[in-house]
Specification:
Blueprint: E1 4-7, E2 10-13, E3 16-17, H1 18-25, E4 29-33, H2 34-47, E5 53-58, H3 65-73, E6 77-80, H4 83-91, E7 99-101, H5 108-117, E8 121-124, H6 127-139, E9 144-151, E10 173-174, H7 178-188, E11 192-198, H8 209-229, E12 233-235, H9 255-258, H10 267-279, E13 284-287, H11 291-294, E14 298-309, E15 314-318, H12 327-331, E16 337-339, E17 348-354, E18 363-371, E19 378-381, E20 402-407, E21 410-415, H13 420-424
Parallel strand pairs: 4-20, 5-6, 5-13, 6-7, 7-8, 8-9, 9-10, 9-11, 11-12, 12-13, 15-17
Antiparallel strand pairs: 1-2, 2-3, 4-14, 14-15, 14-19, 16-19, 17-18, 20-21
Bound molecules: ligand LLP.
Length: about 425
């Protein structure tokens, strides 16, 4: 579900009118709904209910402390990719013993930090990394829990930049070689404890077939690794796609109910397809959803600064740019854009919604029919809760936007807008 809808002519997040937040806190402004995050966690957790399982939220999607705290309180674990993300999880009240540490390039400092904090497992992506973790653990007099990521060479059929499970991608170890790697590491690395096997084929998958193909391919491997090395878990990764087109008129409805024909992947369909293959394994199942958990739970509010009617196009120039939300230009990501004041007519206008950044790639939408909006009015860029703020930057010396978490009637600033002094902090003239 999502919690953004029109009520009495205004767009609300749960019980809070967004226009009031935009006016009070300024724009660009990220607003998240706690109820949506909670619903998504609960729904996914329930779908895996039959299995011994742990939902490890992929922190990279949205790492705000308040978001992490919400998930920690629901009992979630965390999929982290840096020492910084582990630091955040701990600050947010998350349990390091429920953290898996992924990524192809872990540094010594990160490995030491994670070992000292007692994380659940390192998900290693190369034999060289396994040896290095072994060495660092030995130096600390510790044993490092490790899983190895398999690259199953399955096409996730998603955008090229978020496909990870093909042989040409940098992730994981080739399916055909991985068993030998497990065997060698067991022989050569006394400071490792082999705990699991992990995979992740890509992000924003809207069809269950690639998930099923990967699970069916990797399950026999899990059995073999379990026989030889007695592993305790199999992580099936993240990647559940979301619907970027939301209905804003009705009461709470699930995204798959709204758009079942064009978007057949539901969390139930996902679980129904994969769980039967996992049940008999007798190992704990981990999943690592990022976007599913927070994508539809967030919106980016922005103000229309100017309108420019050119000979080829009409531009709505807004105060949010590619530095605030890079998905449209980086992944051709499609985000629904709606006015905060509910349109009173069905009239639309074809425009480019562009930011203030000095790049032609700075757009939030191109050739898009949106309701009529005037200068000074506000727009909501929907489904911006995942990979929105976390990918934002200070490009063009633009301060990072503020972030707000809505919980029922309450709106809390969970990250203050940066000041220019924040942006320049640590810089010096030589
Ligand atoms: N596990 C691993 C190992 C991952 O690499 C990722 C995402 C996830 C889990 C979570 O995937 P999700 O459930 O969110 O699809 N910035 C891109 C998405 C990058 C995904 C990177 N890895 C975007 O905005 O579309």
């Amino acid at each position: 579900m999502h919690s953004f809808r029109y009520h009495q002519g205004e767009l609300f997040a749960e019980n809070v009118p967004l226009q009031s937040l935009a006016e009070q806190h300024g724009t660009p402004l990220y607003v998240y709904s706690k109820a949506t995050i909670t619903d998504h966690f609960t729904r996914l957790d329930a779908a895996f209910g039959k299995l011994d399982h742990l939902v490890c939220y992929a922190v990279k999607a949205n790492s705000n402390l308040a978001v992490l705290n919400t998930i920690a309180k629901l009992g979630g674990g965390f999929d982290i990719v840096s020492g910084g993300e582990l630091y955040r999880v701990i600050k947010a009240g998350g349990n390091p013993a429920k953290c898996t540490f992924a990524g192809v390039g872990k540094t010594r400092e990160e490995i030491v930090f994670a070992l000292k904090q007692g994380i659940y497992c390192f998900n290693a992506e190369s034999e060289a990394e396994l040896h290095y973790i072994n060495q660092v653990a030995g130096e600390l007099g510790k044993k490092a829990p490790v899983a190895v990521r398999v690259n199953p060479n399955v096409d996730a059929k998603t955008h090229a930049k978020i496909t990870t499970g093909k042989s040409e991608n940098k992730f994981g170890i080739d399916f055909d070689h991985i068993l030998a790697v497990y065997d060698r590491v067991a022989d050569e690395c006394p400071h490792l404890v082999i705990k699991g096997l992990q995979m992740h084929i890509g992000s924003q998958l809207t069809n269950v077939d690639p998930f099923l193909e990967a699970v069916q391919k990797v399950v026999p491997l899990v059995k073999q690794v379990k026989e030889r090395h007695n592993i305790e878990f199999f992580s099936i990764g993240g990647g559940i796609g979301i619907n970027y087109r939301q209905s804003l008129d009705s009461g709470p409805v699930t995204w798959w109910e709204q758009n079942a024909e064009t978007h057949p992947l539901t969390v139930q369909a996902y679980a129904e397809a994969v769980v039967p293959h996992l049940e008999a394994l007798g190992v704990r199942i981990l999943c690592e959803p990022g976007r599913f958990m927070v994508g539809n739970a967030g919106t980016l509010l922005t103000k229309v600064l100017y309108e420019k009617r050119g000979s080829a196009k009409t531009f709505k120039i807004v105060d949010a740019g590619m530095n605030d939300l890079i998905r449209p230009t980086l992944y051709e990501g499609w985000h629904q854009i709606v006015p905060l004041k509910q349109p009173t007519t069905t009239d639309v206008e074809k425009v480019d919604v562009v930011g203030p950044i000095c790049e032609s790639g700075d757009f939030l939408a191109q050739n898009r029919e949106i309701p009529l909006v005037k200068e000074g009015e506000y727009l909501a860029v929907l489904s911006a809760g995942a990979y929105g703020f976390t990918m934002a930057s200070n490009y063009n010396t633009r301060p990072m936007p503020a972030e707000i978490l809505v919980d029922g009637d309450k709106a809390t600033v969970v990250r203050e807008r940066q000041t220019l002094d924040d942006v320049l902090k640590g810089e010096h003239i030589a």
